[in-house]
């Protein structure tokens, strides 16, 4: 596994930064400012990033995990340890999807994160497509309202999404698998 530091963390990596307060970096030396205006302060254990944009950053996928800090600015500060950066490419199956049914949210993670326990993996393109499909269904499940499976809606939604995150089945294939015949012979 590749070891990341201040010289290579910005080259084709996935990372989830943890949001921290702006006050936490006030005394730190500013080490680098990117072309897009993001500011970086390096420590021996990791990096602080102050930025108004998260997600896709150049050739990296960096997400900011909010801590619910009430910051009036769009600019947020995140911190990540060097060992939280993971190598990425567009071809390998590196990502798995996780759904929070309570919050009605979906996120993807790198296979080398601690959350991975034998999860179904996809490449970057397939992961992005599947996350979009789940986000279309998750809020209200309107695509599932007419599926006659004989079970309550919340159970159906849970089953469908579980199959979406654990297989390559299309929504049509999932529907065919779950639907009961609407008539008897």
Give a brief rundown of this model:
With 185 residues, the protein is α+β, with helices and mostly antiparallel strands. The protein has three helices and ten strands; from the N terminus they run ββββββββββααα.
Description:
Helix content is 19%, strand content 26%. It is an alpha+beta fold and 185 residues long. The chain folds into 2 domains: 13-87, no CATH class; 95-178, no CATH class. The strands form 2 sheets. Strands 1, 2, 3, 4, 5, 6, 7 and 8 form an 8-stranded mixed beta sheet that branches. It has a two-stranded antiparallel ribbon with strand order 9-10. It is elongated and about 60 Å long.
> Which spans have pLDDT < 50 for at least 5 consecutive residues?
none
- Per the principal axes of the C-alpha atoms, what is the gross shape? elongated
- Counted by DSSP, the helix tally is 3
Helix/strand structural class: alpha+beta
Outline the biggest β-sheet: 8 strands, mixed
| Share in helix | 10-25%
Rounded to an integer, what's the Rg over CA atoms? 20 Å
How many beta-strand runs?
A: 10
The ordered string of helix (H) and strand (E) elements is: EEEEEEEEEEHHH
Number of domains in the coordinates?
Answer: 2
Could you tell me the mean pLDDT?
90
Distance between the termini: 59 Å
> In what range is the share of β-strand residues?
25-35%
Question: What's the SSE blueprint?
Answer:
Layout: E1 13-20, E2 32-33, E3 39-42, E4 46-51, E5 55-57, E6 60-65, E7 76-81, E8 86-87, E9 95-100, E10 105-110, H1 124-137, H2 153-166, H3 171-178
